[in-house]
Design goal:
It is a single chain. The chain is an alpha+beta fold. It has one domain (2-128): STM4215-like (2-Layer Sandwich), CATH 3.30.2000. 23% of the residues lie in helices and 43% in strands. It has 2 helices and 5 strands, in the order αβββαββ. It has helices spanning 2-15, 72-87; strands at 25-27, 38-48, 56-68, 96-111, 115-128. Strands 1-2-3-5-4 form a 5-stranded mixed sheet, covered by helices on one side. The chain starts with a helix and ends with a strand.
């Protein structure tokens, strides 16, 4: 459940950034009907990261940025904006707290029809908020 809550929080956080307004879509999955550029969650996975008295998860989230063209400098600037926004995700959320967030790796590839794709993978360690 924390994995889904984190995914939703990340999407909301990214959508609220005016610096990312050039993206046609920011979705939890690859958008079905959006023109490039768009950003989506390509995959996520979670594992136990709890303590004796608090539930916790280590969640890995991979974002896919898809653009078109030959301007790698513009893509790099857009990727930097996405990375900065992800790194600035607030720690406090209604159901959980982000204890750590860390960039893991990226992968870039060229695709058919002059498409470019960049995969950005992050690791988040979360603890459930304690209820009284």
């Amino acid at each position: 459940m924390m994995e889904n809550l984190l995914r939703a929080a990340l999407i909301d956080w990214l959508r609220s950034d005016p610096q990312l307004a050039s993206l046609n879509a920011i979705e939890e999955e690859s958008p079905l009907k959006a023109s490039v550029p768009w950003l989506g969650i390509a995959a996520s996975a979670s594992a136990d990261w709890g303590t004796k008295d608090r539930a916790g998860r280590e969640v890995r989230v991979a974002f896919e940025l898809v653009t078109r063209g030959d301007d790698s400098a513009a893509d790099a600037a857009l990727a930097r904006g996405i990375e900065q926004r992800i790194q600035s995700l607030p720690a406090a959320h209604p159901e959980f707290a982000v204890v750590t967030s860390r960039f893991i790796r990226s992968r870039a590839e060229r695709r058919a029809r002059n498409l470019r794709a960049l995969l950005l993978e992050y690791r988040f360690r979360l603890l459930a908020n304690q209820t009284e």
